[in-house]
TrEMBL record:
Record's protein name: O-fucosyltransferase family protein
Pfam families tied to this protein: O-FucT
Keyword Oxidoreductase carried by entry: no
Topology relative to the membrane: Single-pass membrane protein
Major subcellular location class: membrane
Keyword Cytoplasm: no
Native species: Arachis duranensis (Wild peanut)
Amino acid sequence: MAMEQNNNTSQPQKAMLFALAFLLSLNHASSMYTVYNPIKPRHSRLLKSAVQRETPTSQLSELWAPLENHGWKPFVESTKPTALPEKSEGYIQVFLDGGLNQQRMGICDAVAVAKILNATLVIPYLEVNPVWRDSSSFSDIFDVDHFIDVLKDDISIVKELPDEYSWSTREYYSIAIRETRIKAAPVHASAHWYLENVLPVLQSYGIAAISPFSHRLSYDNLPMDIQHLRCKVNFQALVFVPHIRTLGDALINRLRYPQQADGEMSPNYIREVTGASASNAGKFVVLHLRFDKDMAAHSACDFGGGKAEKLALAKYRQVMWQGRVVNSQFTDEELRGQGRCPMTPEEIGLLLAALGFDNSTRVYLASHKVYGGEARISTLRQLFPLMEDKKSLTSPEERTLIKGKASVLAALDYYIGVHSDIFISASPGNMHNAMVGHRTYLNLKTIRPNMALMGQLFLNKTMEWPEFQQSVIEGHENRQGQLRLRRPKQSIYTYPAPDCMCQAQ
């Protein structure tokens, strides 16, 4: 009997030990390929030619030339805003998951839902990201007072709930089913759905908490004033806190005036570049690699790291998604031919080189952790030796203020991305989509990689550089920021025209 009891009590311990051993083997396998199997270039023939490339001055001038005026401009309210209703229907809380850019879209939708319901919005709650484990709040990222002031004529906003509703917390909803929690909001729900399902809860309890709240409002069939309000939130109300903007401005100056950033960096957090004029400002590209471990594993593609890398990614898929990844039913060649493989740092470097960017191009690397680390980035650095990132551009004192804060780092990258001459993302995603929309709104150049074309070109192992370069240039001729009107079901945050913009008279 005692033996039985002892065996029973040891089962959880055995399970924990097994799980720990599995995770340790996963981490070991994940690092093995970088230690024992150095990452070699997958496109040596193209890389050799790209390193020796010479770009004509005329081609460089065309690359850096700003976009032509496309005849559209940001929508500006021409009428005096109507007064807010005297009585609010109650308080709306939203709990936003995902990364910063997904949360940004959720904030815009939350304001729109509050307007639809005539409710008072509580400053949105940002969930802890399970991947980056960042607990940054709304006020750590966005200027709350600015947010409230810009929207004061549109909806009522409060920083915190009044004492009578102080029980409505994240913890309160996580331990039991609650009548004030709206859990069944469908993806891209209509305005009618909110009036039918959320308004009665507000009227009964004075509060409604919507969780999860990500992509929970339709892009179509909404009143134009609601669409305009979403645009106003995204492009006017959501401003980063001063210290993010200050550091962002400092890094932008260091990219534009590198000759003035030589020598030891000042320990001061604010390091202004003085005496610099716009006439001698340099240009720079922001490159968002989007090549982290999650991305690599979920794609089910082969990235040239050998058997150890394949094993590590397969085990990671098993831990994260129980091995269930849609792409895994296709071969690597099929996935690449369909443009479903994220480009490696080497491949996005070859794309940039083929477009005409040379080794004098300043590139800012906007990424968190790159899968494979410096070994994976080395070929990109070989092509663009003037490549910078947050670490190379900041002092140790500055880094201590942002270290480990993934959302703050993402906000910094977003800010620099909006202010760059050219932005390009190696693979589509929330950062890419948000940046395409924001830069379209400002009429700035943004290169959208032709993933299917690039996948097919990289499958051709005998292609010479002139043919590769010509194919890349022709395939990206109309993918450099030209305005595209939003179609049904497309995101208003990626395609701001015509909802957020109007044709200039």
